[in-house]
Fold:
Amino acid sequence: MNKQEAIESVKNTSYSVPIDSSMRYIREETAIKIINCIDEPEKPIVPRYIDTWIQGSEYNGFDLYEAMTDEATTDGEIPDKVATWIVCNPETFAKAWLYGYEVEKEKLYTVEIPNPHGLGHTVLVKDMYENIFITYIMNSDWRKSKVNQLTEVEIKKDFDWAWQFAEEVEECG
Structure:
């Protein structure tokens, strides 16, 4: 049970007046304050490929040791990128496995391809099937649209030459 579950349990518990004076009760607010004083380990932040590795390892029934070693795959090899990250971050990996984790947010970019003769914007865009293509947009707020915000991997996959025009999306709020 985590702190939030304990708080919900306190809130959902019905209270009655004691019949004899040997029973002691505390107020709901006091119980919640006490619960909030409990230290909870912070969830580490891991890259998306480590999230994929952990989910796959759990799905396949591996324990922590197997997920951190070559025993985690049928061919006995962890992908190099995953193995390198685990070797460099073993404690973070173990904490992520035991306490849960958050996935690192990838930086997003917009790409406008220079077009000296166009009135609008020639940009990279992602369709509903995750295909990236070049299109022409007249809207001046095009950078705010999620379909125009791409990861570095998405841009470089088919449009490596356009990476030079990428501009990082600034987070709002």
